[in-house]
Structures are given as C-alpha cells and as structure tokens.
Amino acid sequence: MNDFTIGLLAGLAGVLVIAAILKLRARNKPMSIAEKAEYLSKRRARMLPALAVIFLSQQATFFSQMSGGTHVSAEGAKISAWLVLSVVLLLGLATKGFWLEPKEVRELVDDENTRANRTEAMQWGFLFAMGSAIAVYVLTMIEVVTGREAVHIVISFGIAAALLRWGVLEKRALRDA
Amino acid sequence: MRERLANQLKERRTELGLTQAELAERVGVTRKTVNTVENGVFTPSALLAIKLAQTLSVPVEILFWIER
C-alpha cells in the first residue's frame, strides 16, 4: 500500500469519524423536524468558516513543498487526504449536505434562502477558481508550476472562497433570528 | 432607480400572535428564511410570497409591495 492510498483511507476515515461524532452529539437532543433544521442551520453557519480555515491551513503542507513538483514521499498521504476532503467539501457545496439526516430535515435545512446563499457561494467559488487559474497562468511565465500544483491552487481557492462566502451569508441570515 | 420588495410580514405576523418559528413551520421553511424576508435581506420567490400571504390571510399585494 503506497502513501497515496494510505492518505485516501485516512481521509475517508477522518470524514466518517467526524460524521459519527456529529450524529452522536445530535442524538441526545430530541427535536422536531423544524427544531432540528434550525439547529443544523446554526451549526452549519458556525462550521463553514472553520472548515474553510482548516481546509486552507491544510494546504500549507503542500505549498511549502512546492519546488517544481518534487514532493517527499511522506507528503503523499497528506495530499491524498486533501483530495478526499476537497471532494467531500465540494459535494457538501453542490448538494444539500447533512447526508445522514432524514429526508424531511434535509429538505427543510436546504430551504429557499439557503439555496440562494449556496448559489451565491458557488458563484464566488467559481470566480475565485478562475481568478486563481489566471494568477497561476501569469506565475508560469516567471516560475515552473506543475499541473498538479496548478490544480491544487485552483481547487483550494475555489472551494475555500465558496465555503467562506456561504458561512458569511448564513451568519448574516441568522442575525436577529 | 433602485427598487426593493418591502413587506409588512412582521406586523401581520405579530397581529396574529405568531412567532417566526411558527410561521416558518406553517409555510415549510426555516425560521432563518422568515427572518431574512422580514428584514428585507432576502427577496422571496413568488411561491413563498403567496404561501406567506395565504398563511397570514392577507392578499399578497398587501403583504408585499415595491418600494422605490
């Protein structure tokens, strides 16, 4: 088993552990569908900026290794874990999220205002991804940037921008609620 | 000229003695959505506007109007 496979498995395990902890924490609170949606809505508003920060800080490992594409073997696992996290976050952005919750709760927690906020966040993500792609293109004129590095930068900035924007919009919507 | 959708959601809701959470539950959205509509932060779809008007027993054009 190589480092990348270990990283993929570690990333998946991490996601499953976090999901299980969140599920167990919520299980101790008997709530109606509306209360549950409200609770999840507030939790999401708190978590989104934190996730963006964690996601970006995780990139420090990769960017500190950027030297024309040579990554030491031990970093392979971290890069794979980053890939898993990126896919999970992207799915969270593109779908209603809260995959372990009942359908009624998922529908309610992704109501009209949330969909509008999510759409705007996705627009920000797209613009930041395109902006960073342009920046990478300019960078290639003065420095060697490998394909993997370029993809890493574009994905990181795109997803982080979308998460942050969604978090800001959700917090604003919950103000005075 | 900048236009916005004004509303008297809060006034009508208070008249009927409903909380934001109760109104939200009746129209099938979260309290956050009702809050953002009340505050003018979010412009609801025609579907939600009509649902809100029906729940508050008031014509939609009385509940919502364009402010210039």
What are its keywords?
heterodimer; A: 177 residues; 6 helices; globular; B: 434 Repressor (Amino-terminal Domain); two-stranded antiparallel sheet; 2 strands; 54% helix; 12% strand
Structure description:
The complex is a heterodimer of chains A (177) and B (68). With 177 residues, chain A is mostly helical. Chain A is built from 6 helices and no strands. In chain A, helix 2 runs antiparallel to helix 3, helix 3 crosses helix 6 and helix 5 packs antiparallel against helix 6. Chain A starts with a helix and ends with a helix. Chain B has a single domain, classed as lambda repressor-like DNA-binding domains (434 Repressor (Amino-terminal Domain)), CATH 1.10.260. Helices cover 54% and strands 12% of the residues of chain B. The interface between A and B is medium-sized, with 17 and 19 residues.
Distance N to C terminus of chain B: 7 Å
Gyration radius over CA of chain A: 18 Å
- The third-level CATH topology of chain B is 434 Repressor (Amino-terminal Domain)
Element pattern of chain A in H and E: HHHHHH
Short description:
Chain A has 177 residues and is mostly helical. Chain A contains six helices and no strands.
Outline the secondary-structure elements.
The complex is a heterodimer of chains A (177) and B (68).
Chain A: H1 3-27, H2 33-64, H3 75-94, H4 103-109, H5 112-139, H6 147-174
Chain B: E1 4-7, H1 9-15, H2 20-27, H3 31-38, H4 46-55, H5 60-63, E2 64-67
Antiparallel strand pairs in B: 1-2
Helix pairs in contact in B: 2-3
